[in-house]
UniProtKB/TrEMBL annotation:
Family: Belongs to the class-III pyridoxal-phosphate-dependent aminotransferase family.
GO molecular function: pyridoxal phosphate binding; transaminase activity
InterPro entries given in the database record: Aminotrans_3, Aminotrans_3_PPA_site, PyrdxlP-dep_Trfase, PyrdxlP-dep_Trfase_major, PyrdxlP-dep_Trfase_small
Protein name: Glutamate-1-semialdehyde 2,1-aminomutase
Organism: Phenylobacterium parvum
Keywords on record: Pyridoxal phosphate
PROSITE patterns xref list: AA_TRANSFER_CLASS_3 (PS00600)
Required cofactor names: pyridoxal 5'-phosphate
Amino acid sequence: MDRRNDRALRARAEVVIPGGMFGHQSTALLPDDYPQYFVKAKGAHLWDADGGKVLDLMCAYGPNLFGYGDEAIDAAFIAQLRQGDTLTGPAPVMVELAETLVDMVGHADWALFCKNGGDATTMALTVARAQTRRKTVIRARGAYHGSTPWCTPRTAGVLESDRAHQILCDYNDVASLEAAVAEAGDDLAAIFAAPFRHDAFIDQAEPEAAYAARARELCDRTGALLVLDEVRAGFRLSRDCSWSHLGVEPDLSTWGKGLANGHALSALLGSDSARKGAEAIYATGSFWYQAAPMAASLEVLRRIRETDYLERLETLGERLASGLSERADAAGFGFRITGPGQMPLFLFDEDPDLRKGFFWSSAMLAKGVYVHPWHNMFLCDAMTEADIDQALDAAEASFAELRAAAPGLAPVAKMAFLSQTR
């Protein structure tokens, strides 16, 4: 496709935006033919700046849970917007939303609201330290908890002091977790955990029951708080916290992305074990109290309670995963699909610099399906079986193209660092 408009926008951006683009939506580490700019979205589809339409398996990196431009959710947003949104004080909808979340999430006794996942995780860190009057936190290597200095994966401009009082462990490794707790001694404030290992560039992994249970036991023994970071996975794996099926409840949980179906809202939920800490901290933002996203979230939560969206996502995820496995096997590729079906990650065997993954992803894009070569993807409730079948047809053709091109594939220079870290 001729990406004339996209190229023109990139050129303009280079002048007024450092690096041309920033953050997780930059295409700097994606295949060169991926569009940077999109102009329209509806349901499960995106239209780029040059008119190309794609089935979007990234769902805006997670916020799209019930479909872009969902009429009922957007109507709730617009109705509240007309009444009042950013005001001198919060609207009553804030209390209703907090009550609804406390009713829905098993461990929650209270809620605080903010805008981004990083806001919520940083609040969780601060609450844990205020509650326990300790400093040290434990988190898993490679886990993403946001872009604020204490946890950002890129450390340019970050001071050692910004990342002090942290100990890293290995996800699902009980011995590693126990060693980190022992190292923290009497100063342990919190253990942070993701619902499952969803790190970039590596296979995803479900949480092991023994690891989750041991994290809870260690927090109970030491007086530290267990924090479950639900920003990415919240309400895509469960109608409660994602570890509820393991019988493990956190003290704090952080939520975002799909909480308001793309409208700007995130939340920190907590039990009474952390209430005094939450009352003690000062955390705020000019737009954290906006009422319209909260009204949208109430409609999202109603849909979560009253529809079979979760079962549909699981069924669609199974259809996609099994179909991709069959087609990859038929084409003779080792192709790994890891993580929950509704949040899959695709990686090729023997692909240290992602040259196979980049080629295949570009071929998928050319056939109208947007996949990601190294980040987990997301399914949304607006997707249909026909959409999944479209993706599978595109995959079959793309595997065939990769088979023909594989002997001569050039290294992906922008991914060369991966071969040194695997």
